[in-house]
């Protein structure tokens, strides 16, 4: 049972079409969160228990569809966040899809071609580790397309999510916000840990040189596509424990809005004769 | 080589957002077509040869994407038209997808979920036998959704095709137009031919009772979604030979607009030493 509920979705929510700068969002923000780490951890654990309960009902009810999108710069914490958030969900109703650079056959098609098959059906939670937004970010930062084509792509993303929402998908989008110093710290830590070497991608490392262009691209993209039916949340992510608490609270609240219920039996179960 | 080219796409093209009645379109129209059947057949054969040549180039070039959509009432001639049009294409660059009533798993997702995986990639021609339009027609005629939701669905179809077109798909849409008497004749012929009994679908037969509602739904749908980048053509289809000539001519013209070319070798082939 959550007794105090002072973490507000509104604080993290991006307002549609309102210009902003990511550097004005504090990646260490802790407002409304417990002051001590062990309290943060305890509260997160309670949120996760509630999420798992709600996801169980959602799967049983076979009515609602939930899509959770994670975007972040490299080392932003997508993998860890997803594991914490969804590690205890019933995998029968869960599907995590990770997107890398498009393959040759994916590249032969429109960018949503590789996305659409993985959107959730009834009773499912789908989580995207990176997403359709990559196909706007990368061509923009690397100037592969002209402005007009980029604008069209952004509008296609908006339309795509509008269609999904109209067809019953609850969409929640997270941008994990770390600052450039934090990224440096994490890359150095990764370098020192042989078990994390597999996570190094030289292409990603090169993207660090484009930090400012990516931040700018994110600012425009988040503002343009943070519709009421598919809001973006900027989650302060320098501190992983606090990040997880914010994520879990927002997801729990969205799931509660859906109020999933175990379906009622079509007959009087107490009358059932079990031989 | 086509010497006379008097069949104009414009004659069959639906004008976007302009109201019309299907009963004002003559399902026996033969304007611009040769007067004698053997001449119609000869001209169709020449068009088909040219289409196959263009499709071969398109596949080799690996650049353009083509989507051809067929809609019609039952017995409208979709199967036969597709066989005539595409039977000689290189199957390596061709993919025909036939849509029936959605399966349980398809129905659990948004209606475009079962469509998107089958849109063409570079170098491919995709043909849809029925399509995403069914998921507007059927709920409308059977009053499964309210007006507002139907309007949204129609807008989603428009946005979906706009996205595909912006991402390089050439979209051609055919409505095979037969009248109610012709349908009766074809159903009776089907009844008399045991080899065609498998084509009977009792659900389809029942749809004949909704003939007028379907015609009305088609009228609104064709007008709303006949965008420049995804035009609808109403093809007079009471006569199969003439129908095929019109279809082949329109497809050939669209393929010619794309002007597909065999790729040039990256080196001087005449210098190649073959041991």
Summary, kept brief:
2 copies of one chain form a homodimer. With 275 residues, chain A is α/β, with parallel strands linked by helices.
List the helices and strands and how they pair.
The structure is a homodimer of 275-residue chains.
Chain A: H1 9-12, H2 37-61, E1 65-72, H3 78-86, E2 94-98, H4 104-107, E3 125-129, H5 134-141, H6 147-166, E4 169-177, H7 180-192, H8 202-207, H9 211-225, E5 232-236, H10 240-258
Parallel strand pairs in A: 1-3, 1-4, 2-3, 4-5
Helix pairs in contact in A: 2-10, 5-6, 5-9
What is the annotated CATH architecture of chain A?
A: 3-Layer(aba) Sandwich
CATH top level of chain A?
Answer: Alpha Beta
Oligomer: homodimer
Largest interface: A-B, 29 and 29 residues
Keywords:
five-stranded parallel β-sheet; homodimer; Rossmann fold; alpha/beta; 275 residues
Structure notes:
Two copies of one chain form a homodimer. Chain A has a single domain (4-179, 210-260), classed as P-loop containing nucleotide triphosphate hydrolases (Rossmann fold, 3-Layer(aba) Sandwich). Chain A has ten helices and five strands; from the N terminus they run ααβαβαβααβαααβα. Chain A has helices at 9-12, 37-61, 78-86, 104-107, 134-141, 147-166, 180-192, 202-207, 211-225, 240-258; strands at residues 65-72, 94-98, 125-129, 169-177, 232-236. A five-stranded parallel sheet of chain A has the order 2-3-1-4-5, sandwiched between helices. The two termini of chain A are 39 Å apart.
